[in-house]
Amino acid sequence: MEEFHTFINNCALVDLPLQGGDFTWSRCGEVPASSILDRFLISLEWEDNFINAIQKRVPRPLSDHFSICLENGSFQRGRIPFKFENMWLEVEGFGDLIKRWWKEASVEG
Q: What is the pTM of this model?
């Protein structure tokens, strides 16, 4: 592992901290094991331009391997447009449910 870190330093690369866990692979059993198999390595110049960059561990549903995702902060996408599925109009009692919700709603301001 020391050789790997020396290589990263010699190439002037940055190993971003992993968020969401300490490793990307694990094995259970008699001799449990875990390791960081995946990582994003970035240059110092890249880090200067993307100061909010992080690598995040993605949940694993079935595998012994966690995928990772490179993120650069949150995105402001504006307001989410209202969407309505017309199929709800065909569900028995839906109209009455909406009427009840409107009567119960309290709006201020």
A: 0.55
